[in-house]
Structure formats: C-alpha cells, structure tokens
Amino acid sequence: MPSARKSTPVGLATIDYKQLCDGQFSRRWWDWLILGAGSSLLLASLFQIKLSLGLGVVGQVISLQTVRAAMKLFISFFIPSLLTKLFYHVNRTTPASRLAKLRLLAQREFWWLIAAYVASAWLIGSTYLALQAPHTTSMFFYPEGSYGPRYLNPRHLLLSLHCVGAGAVYGAQLLWSERLHLAFASVQQTRVFALKSRLPTVMCQGLRSAWAFTRWFMLAALVLLPTAYFATAHFLSYLVRIETFAYTQNPIFSVTTWVHVVLSTLLMHACWEVQLQSFEVLFTDPMDISTTSIDPNACLVNGLSIARPCLAQYHAFYELVRIAKFYPRQRLQIFQDIDRSSSVWTQVFTQCVTVLQTAQTDLQAKNSPAKSSPLITAESAPPTSQSQVPRPNKGAFISDILETNPAPETPKNPPTLATTPSPSAPKRTPAKPMDGYLFDLALSTVQSSKAGNLMLRRLTNDTATTVFGNLQIQLWAIQTLGHLLTASLREDPFGLVQRDLPKALEALLAYLTVLEEFVRNPYYLATYGECGALADMVFHNTPHQRLHQQAYVLIQQLQNTIYQITTAFYEHLPQYKFAPQYIKRLESFVDFLE
Questions:
Q1: Dihedral in degrees, nearest 10, Cα atoms 33, 38, 41, 47
Q2: Contacts of 162 (CB under 8 A, 6+ apart)
Q3: What predicted TM-score, i.e. pTM, was given to this entire model?
Q4: 223 and 323: one domain?
Q5: For residue 1, how many other CB atoms are within 10 A of its CB?
Q6: Does residue 417 sit within a domain?
Q7: How far is CA 64 from the centre of its chain?
Q8: Which of 19, 72, 383, 391 is least surrounded, with the fewest CB atoms within 10 Å of its CB?
Q9: 167 domain-assigned
Q10: What tens digit of pLDDT does each residue of 133-190 get?
Q11: Domain count, the chain
C-alpha cells in the first residue's frame, strides 16, 4: 500500500490544478536532467574500460577524454528528450489507414524529431568510435604521407550513413507507432522500482529495433555503398582537392567494421529506449498536487474539470482514484465538504459520470452502422446499386477518408413554380488550402481503383484504439465510483453519497450494455464502400480478442465495479428505484450473489 499522503501546513493560495502541476513537471524535468547526466557519465566510463590494462583502467576512466565523451552523450540524451517534452500526448489519435498516416510528413514535429535523432545518432556514434575505433573518425586519410594525395575514408562514410539512417528511421518509427503517447503504469511503484521494471522492456525494444535496422542497412550498403562513395567523392572534389576513386578495399567485407556498426546500433537504440522509458516514468509518476493548495478539494475538482485533455487532467483522475483506494482521511474530507453551492462529492460524481456518458455517446455514434448493416461475405454479397449500400454515420470515424457523399435523391413530389423560393445570394465559403486540395485530389485518384480503395481501408488495431482514446481516464472513473460508493457505507456521515447510487449503477450498466454490443458487432466490420464485399476479407483472419482488447478491459472493470457495489449494498438495494431497462441486467448481478 502506498505511504501516507503528505500535507502542507500552509497551502498555496491557488486552486488552479494545471498551474500547480506544471510546477511539478518542471522539477521532474530537472530530475530527468540529473538522471541523464549520470547515465551519460556511466556510459562514457564503460567505454573506457579495457580489462587488459588491469588497475591502470582506473586512471584511464578518470580522464578528460571521459568527461568530453560524457558531455557528448548527455547532449544526445537532451535533444530528443526536449522534443519529447514538447510533442508528447496522452489521448490516442491514430489515423484511419496506413496511407492516411502519410499526413505525418506534413507535420513539423515529424521533421524536428528526425533531425533530433539524426544529431543524437551522430553524437553517440562518434563518441563510440572515438573511444573504440579512432582510425574511422577521420573523414580523409593520406596513405602515401601528408604530402601525398588525399582520399575519402570509406569506413567513415559507411559509419556516417549508418548514423544518419539509424536516427532517421528511429525518429520516423517513433511517430508512426505513437511511441510519444504516455502510458500510466497499472501498478503503482516507487520511481526506482518503476525504472528497474522497465529494464527488460528497454533491452527487448532496443535489440528488436537495432536488429531490424542493421539487417536492412547491411543489404542497402552492399548494393549502394560504392555508388554513394563515388558520388560523395565527386561532390567533395569541387570543394577540396581529393581523389575520386577508392584507395582501399570496400569496408563492406570487413568483419571489424560490421562489428562496430552492430555495437554502435545497439548502443544508440539502448540509449534512446532509456531516454523514452525514463521520461515516461518520471512524468507519469503519481503526484499529490491537491495537497499543495490552500483548498485541496476545490483544487482536485478543478483538475478533473479541465476542458481540454492534457497530462494535468490525467494526473487529477490518477490522484482521485488513489484517494478513493488508499487514503481514508482524504475520502472523509470529500464526503464532509458540503458547505458549497455544490458538494465536492456531487462535483466528483458528475465528472466521473460525464466521462462514461461521453464515451458511451461516442461509441453509440460509431457503432450505429453495425446495427443496421450486417456483415456480408464475398460469397453471399448480393449485387446492390450505389443507393442501396448502407452508409456509416457522418461521425462514425475521425477523418474517414473513405467517406463519400451519396447522390441526392429526387423527391417524389417536386415543388411547383409557385412554391419554389426565390434564389438567395450565394454564401461565401473559405478557400481551401492548396495542400489540402492536392491531398484530396490524390485521394480521389487512388480511390478510383479497387486496389487503392483496399489500401485506404481502416486498420483493425488502430480502429479499435481510436474508439477508446482516453481509456485510462475511463478506467479511473469507473474505479473511483466503485471505491467511493463502497467506502461511503462506513465513512459518509450525511448519507449524501448513497442518494446517487441508482444514477451510478445506471451509468455503469448503460456503458456496459453498449460495450457488449460493440464486442458482438463492432462498427468497422460492417463498413464497406465501393469495394463492397472485400470488407470481410480484410478482417476475416484477424484474432477476435485482438480487435477488442480495450473493450474487454473496460467490460471486466465495469463488471468488477458493479459486483463490488452490489455486494456492499446487497441488503439496501430493495430501497432504491431503478429505470426499467436496467432492472433485469442488475438482477443478474444480484442473483449471482444469492
């Protein structure tokens, strides 16, 4: 169980949760800088260790060269982390298809991250090579003496291309796979144990990504390195005096060179994974923000009611669920604080129920086409005209680029001349940007073919993810309702919480019903456009639970919470009145107890 929450004798004279949260983020940013400096010094020291020197390795580790290497590594940590701090997000915003993800090329953060990771790869690679392979750090070499002809070092070119490619590929993969999304740990731990628990993930991710890049880079270098060498040498010949042909053999066939490539790749990816995981641990670590305010309850409610989803709102719900689970003194303060226009419990209850109702409304809007459009297969698909194809709801999916407008139907009784209204002045519409026009033109061109339409189809995993963009807040809202209602039997002195028991159970049961309907008939299985029956072929061989893992998590949490409430209030449930549509489902939970 977590330790007792610290309370300040005199809180700050503000209830702005986001302002207090930003102050804590600034302190944690400095904590990360200290952690990065220590990691950089440790890695630079490890580079210097050579067991053949015996005790003399101590003098080699404590040297000016180690300090310079540590400074380079710290800069390589700092640059990507600074951009991670600027571009991280907490809500999921996955595009509809892989082709739609190409819109990332038009975002400035994409190119900033590419440049940052290329610079970081260059610093890490140059530091490693300066300590382990100094002969490859020079761009030019003079095999016939300092007065002889100058040649381009092919090993230096190979390793330079390797650094640029490793940084660019990792930065692109970071945005493509939404690695900048901060995920909160399911188990609350101290910071040290949280970092230790991430070490296997760091090693696994680092090895996997390093091996994937190295094998493709080897193949590309085998084919393209001679061409790249002569092109670079010819370009440099216009700037400096240099021979344009290779003096030594191709470094592709050097085992030592490839050993350095593999080790430097592992080092780069390990450093980047450490940076990402440590950043996520520090910025998702639990914080007691409300206790630093002069009015903790009002400060907590202020954090819950932030209009725009942000990390501060996530921390507010995280703090609320920890209060509901582990801190009876703060729970009692929530129950007793009724000397306001609206009691604190009422405001907390409203925010939690609003989260569930909003998610339920969104899911119903997205799942509505599935109720009227059964899934058809390629064998049983009847020939239908364009007007007979059921259309999904306009709000069924974010930026659905497959959506086409149906042709307007001709009315049965066209208006006569006498009933025709007089024409009005045309409305001015804002001009469409040129980039948006070109993108729409390209989409319409691709959609003209069946192969292009199939390429634009929704992805199963990404589609299921975007349905539950704020999954973590939904889980915390459900847990908060369950724990606060259960604790109110012993701790609520006014009985205010028990009055909202029917509303809480009805909100939980309503969302549970919608989720179960989604699992039985997900909306994206019933969506098809010009390709018609090809929709079944896209999702036919996909594992069922993989498509709905977010829905299964929510269903399990809802069922556990409803069982928790009905078990605690089992003897008091007959005193409450529930809506008729929820009575039968509620009886299934109560009958289980009997």
A1: -110
A2: 125, 217, 221, 261, 264, 265
A3: 0.74
A4: no
A5: 7
A6: no
A7: 40
A8: 383
A9: yes
A10: 776 667 777 766 666 677 788 888 888 888 899 999 998 888 877 788 888 877 777 7
A11: 2
